[in-house]
Design the sequence.
């Protein structure tokens, strides 16, 4: 309730920090992809989020924390890639507490973007017996 997510300017171009001061950029591992996927999700650019998810998988990266599958699942669900979404949902189902929290947060929300496939997301993750 204290976050002001609407203040985040997601459309501004990213800046390059001077290596002399900050050092070399970190390796492009799962954390790099997760941040990029999450940004694309905030921008409702589901195609870019799905593309980045594919790229991360092709490079052998995946989360250790099951909750980090959420934006990947949403990217696939919101681009109509239901087979890919179903594969991710299987991985997510290994953490029922995380799913319960996620489902309670999206259930009945009226402020989800028009591009969000609520029916598919909710029926896939939240209406399944545990």
Sequence:
């Amino acid at each position: 309730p204290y976050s002001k997510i609407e203040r985040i300017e997601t459309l501004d171009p990213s800046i390059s920090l001077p290596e002399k001061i900050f050092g070399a950029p970190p390796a492009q591992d799962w954390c790099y992809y997760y941040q990029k996927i999450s940004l694309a999700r905030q921008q409702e650019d589901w195609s870019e989020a799905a593309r980045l998810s594919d790229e991360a998988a092709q490079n052998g990266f995946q989360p250790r924390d099951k909750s980090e599958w959420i934006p990947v699942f949403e990217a696939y669900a919101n681009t109509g890639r239901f087979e890919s979404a179903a594969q991710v949902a299987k991985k997510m189902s290994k953490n029922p507490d995380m799913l319960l929290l996620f489902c309670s947060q999206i259930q009945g929300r009226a402020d989800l973007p028009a591009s969000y496939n609520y029916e598919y997301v909710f029926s896939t993750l939240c209406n399944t017996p545990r």
User: Anything to note?
Assistant: The mean pLDDT is 89.
